[in-house]
Amino acid sequence: MNLTVKALNRTALLACAPFLGIMLWLMMSDIVIELSDAAFPAAKAEQSMLPEADISPASLGLDRAQETAEQTRESIQKQIKLYNQTNAEMAKISSMAASQAMKPLIVYDRNITNKLGKPAATIESDKLRAQLFYIQAANFKAYALKVKLKSADAMTMTLGGDALGKAETTLAAASRHGAVAGVNAGGFADGRGKRYPLGTTIVDGEYVTAFEAPRDNLFFVGLNDKNELVGGKFPTKGQLDAKKPKFGATFVPVLLRGGAPQPIPAKWQNSPKRAPRTVIANYKDDQLLFLIADGYNESGSSGATLGEMQLLLQRYGAVDGYNLDGGGSSSLVFNGKVVNKPSDGQLRKLPTHFLFFK
């Protein structure tokens, strides 16, 4: 039994001896054995899969962000388009509403214009519209100036020579100030070689003469800060100041109130009976109407009566009407030319003028 085991051990030792020798040789030698990546296919495959596994969620997030941004852009564009459409529609509605609101005024203007006839000349700008009409009455020839003021500086009243006590013709005043039209204003009184405006006179919102309470049927007439005609008898300065007049002058008498003729004082019915006349009036839409009647003298035999001027104001649809200085003072300038026929043979030098600007 022991012999058999010993024999087997020898046999195994002899069989392993070559391998043991090789191992000892490898351990003692400098030989380096390198294996290629192909020797580890599973590891390479695992390594190549790692980047895809790491990048895929980020890539998916970017795709979703891009998709969200595109949707947001489209939504904003739709909102902008809707906003623009809404604005355009609102502008259209506003324009239509404004057009509808203007229709009554347009119809009203057409009606009052038709009563005056066909304009002989028109001045139109962003500041005003001034229309000139020729009128042939039974006893006199007259002119109408209808003015629509569109801005605060379209009309003013000036002193002759821009100084109290001085005087100049309406044509000279219009030319000096660059006005396109002009009409004589209030009455006057001469003294010490000078010509002073009659009664209360306001220029550029300032009193250039002291306030005078009404006397002898005198009244004040002018425009306020809203381009509205203000006129009448103001017992106190406070009552006149409450109307906020920008400018105005004084004369006599009041002709029309609310479309109704006012009693003409006996003194002014026949002193003179007929004469060249200038009156100022307004319409319901605040347009102004000036009527200037020709007469070849101041003796009472030519021109218009105050009653006839009242009738004309009523016929043309005026609301309030006031008589301005007449006789040789009546002056109408339009586009640099004298339109009426002054009874003096030429324009009279006056202390106050209503002027209109283009």
Automatic annotation (TrEMBL):
Pfam families: NAGPA (PF09992)
The protein, known as: Phosphodiester glycosidase family protein
Residue ranges of every copy of the Phosphodiester glycosidase domain listed in the record: 177-357
Any one GO MF annotation of this record: hydrolase activity, acting on glycosyl bonds
Hydrolase as UniProt keyword: yes
InterPro entries: NAGPA
Source superkingdom: Bacteria
Keyword vocabulary terms for this entry: Glycosidase, Hydrolase
